[in-house]
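ASSEMBLY PREDICTION REQUEST
Request ID: AP-0331
Submitted by: J.K., bench scientist
Number of chains: four
Total residues: 474
Priority: normal
Notes: Please return the full assembly, not individual chains.
Input sequences:
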Amino acid sequence: MNKTICGCNKCNHKLCTQRVSIFSSLNIEQLEKVGELINHKEYKKGDLLIMEGESSESLVIINEGQVKAFKTTQDGREQILYIFSEGDFFGERNLLRDFASPYSVEALEETHVCLIHKSDFQILVKSFPDIAVKIMEELCQRLDRLEHALETMGARTVEARVSSVILEFAEKYGKEHPKGILIELPLSREGIANYIGLTRETVSRKMSLLQSEGILEMIGNKKILLLDRVALEKNIE
Amino acid sequence: MNKTICGCNKCNHKLCTQRVSIFSSLNIEQLEKVGELINHKEYKKGDLLIMEGESSESLVIINEGQVKAFKTTQDGREQILYIFSEGDFFGERNLLRDFASPYSVEALEETHVCLIHKSDFQILVKSFPDIAVKIMEELCQRLDRLEHALETMGARTVEARVSSVILEFAEKYGKEHPKGILIELPLSREGIANYIGLTRETVSRKMSLLQSEGILEMIGNKKILLLDRVALEKNIE
DNA sequence: TTATTATTATGAACCACGTCACAGTTTTTC
DNA sequence: GAAAAACTGTGACGTGGTTCATAATAATAA
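STATUS: Completed
Returned structure:
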């Protein structure tokens, strides 16, 4: 069984399929059936799951861990497009036709994924049309995120861009804390820079500025304590 | 009948549904049935089809004409996200749940649209699951476009951004011409600037530069003759 | 056509971000 | 826990894009 391939206790088929929204319309029996079609794979931090231009044969569902999806521009920059976490998927472009991956995907930490082969997925969609609708919803959310990102990238002031990312991360990775919101950053300063199209130095400087203004507090390199959310939101306006 | 509402000869139900890819899996009888659910509407240049934040009850399919979809940023800038032409649709976010429109849409010229009401569309998807798959494909294309746009916006040089738009427009609106590719611009200089996050002046200057380099020739304000496509492509690298 | 309006081109000055360099700090590894 | 490696902060400087102002041109109306 695949269970043994993975080994972790979280990652048996039932849970694996249950935690993904695209299968949320299926009942338990159906989920088990889907589970039989799934393969598992593990990656270490820094491992590439797929390279831009490569064609993959599977839909990839993140079961544990975190990855970044990015394009490498001709001038060598890395433009990060998405950060996928548990329950997110990618590879949907390949499912219906034969497309090359529009981006590379790299593990930001130890990551476990579920794989469904293209051909299996096509059968699945025919049997359970609701899956297509769910994917549609998920794609719409992704469009929302990109549209918002584009708006951010076009922002006149760099201050607004940095503030915007911090707020985004606060939403996604923030936890309550007596003094404010504690954010575990998924990216380094350089990663953040590549996410919003700036340089590492500029991000550093702006974050220092925000700290000196008492808006946030940097805790080591990987955490931020957001003290004054309202002030950040004003920065965007 | 709705035919009379519209009045144009292109825009009878059959053609209206036939020219849209999301209905391409349907046969003629089915298309006629869909046609009965459709309403028509016309807009003049400058008219707003929908405002950001408004919730619409329909999927809107462009039947004739051209529109721009944009967000108005808090600092007053207008970030253009899409230019929709014949066969494109918008309003898909509202179909399944009750979402507000993520952007405003304004007619760039006389524009005729087909409207399908949310409730009708939901029934349609249940009867013809392939429609969801088609929409999925279309959404994937839109993701491609946005991902590419984000990469462009992050580009170090402004030259690359301007070159990138001109190439995009050449693909979409270019016609063969003895000297190169004749492009009918859908946007003014200011519009182009709002599309790639620059100022009107910078776009002007860069285009003048490209003209002086013999890469293109500006014909009035609304046309460009692209003389050296290869040189433009090199600009992006 | 001419008059009017809208759009575009271009110059000059400013300043913010990128670049380069290096010191300081955090994180990882053994 | 110490050493190595990776990452971050910050100063100085130059460049290029924005801003503001104005002239020139194109599109539209009369």
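REVIEWER COMMENTS: The first strand of chain B starts at residue 38 and ends at 43.
SIGN-OFF: pending second reviewer
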